[in-house]
Amino acid sequence: MIRSSHKGLLLLLASALLLPGVSQAQEAPQDSLAPLQIGPVIVHPSLSLRETYSDNVFFTAKDTKGDLITAISPGVTFQLPFRTHILTLGTSAEFVIYADNSSLNVSPFQVFGLGEFNIGDRVKLKVGDTYQRNEESPLESPNGTSDVYTANAAALSVKYAFVDIAQAQLDYTRTSLDYLDSSYRTREEDLVSAYLYYRVMPNTSAFLEYDFKNVAYDTSDTFDNVVHTGQVGATWEFTEYSKGTAKIGFLAKEYSDDSLKDYTTVTASVDLRHQLTPDASVRLLGKRDVNEGKYVDARYYTTTGLFADFTYRFLERLSGVIEGSYAFDEYSNARVGSVIVREDKTAHIGLGAKYSFNSWLDFSLGYGYSNRNSNIADLDAIVNTVTFKVTAAL
Question: Which residues contact 16 (CB under 8 A, 6 or more apart)?
């Protein structure tokens, strides 16, 4: 099932959707529907139905339990373009029902709004807010069961073009996280990011990035910290079929409690997408990052992960994908009462196929295999899933 982020690359890589980014088939004109409009407002409704069988719904090392999972996901987005600006408002939900393990039933939802404004020829302004209520799966949560939380992220971004070859960008995001079952993780995060772009070639820009994040916990200030990250990178678009962004830098995590040891490390990310032929494409995503701790006695954990997929369109409407990922999670310290510092290695492979009946209706079938190998034997887990999905979206 789809679970929200805020959990590092483990969610992106180890729990990736079975059918990501399958190439869209070229649609005949008679297959396309005109945009749905209410006055000047463009409406994009969507609805998907997903049936999944998992042979290990609790992600346990022993005594595994299988189940059939039904997920119904409605959503709608409203867009109001005016002059050179656009306002977007949307909501989506997911109703997940387990045939035999109703304790895992969830109904996450989110509401979001975004305003994009072009002020003159040089200034671009974005203002947005997203509120979501979600539930971590037993794989993600620290206690091996589901953990309900809410998250609200308010964001502001300003981009200014000095000249045709140089731009500056300033972003601010305030995220409020509230956990029901692990309240010690409830916190506020303020993130300020500054970027300076310089176009070194017609389709390539180098950039400098500096991030400052302040993390303040509600129940205790023991783990309050500030994070400084400096990175250099490049972004390129040689053609519309070949795009990429790569960056590397240095991260320093400083705790307000002088008794806690600060942490410094290298951080990096890469996002490469290339269309090999009109029918074949590849994607490569990688990241090394530092996440806030999941356990009450663990300050943080680092995630290093890599995800890749290859998609191929066999026929006009039929395409397939093969994907794989690997993630390594390393925790900051051993838990109280233990001498073992937790380390998890999670591998995933998936196969999928999609048939595009027309421009707004898709059928997908996929298989996924995930293996979490931990140095703590009780945290090992092997999961096999088979998924069938029908998606209608305008």
Answer: 307, 323, 325, 348, 350
Contact 309, 13 (CB under 8 A): no
The C-alpha atoms of residue 67 and residue 45 are separated, in whole angstroms, by 30
Contact by Cβ (8 Å): 86, 80: yes
The answer to whether 17 and 307 have CB atoms below 8 angstroms apart is: no
CA dist 276 and 242 (Å) reads: 9
Residue 35 CB neighbours (<10 A): 10
Q: What is the pLDDT of residues 319-347, one digit of tens each?
A: 999 999 999 999 999 988 889 999 999 99
Cα 232 to Cα 249: distance, rounded to the nearest angstrom: 6
Q: Residues 291, 267: contact at Cβ < 8 Å? A: no
What's the pLDDT tens digit per position in 241-263? 899 999 999 999 999 999 999 99
The per-residue pLDDT for range 32-45, each reduced to its tens digit, is: 677 789 999 999 99
pTM for the model stands at 0.86
Contacts of 306 (CB under 8 A, 6+ apart): 13, 284, 285, 286, 325, 326, 327
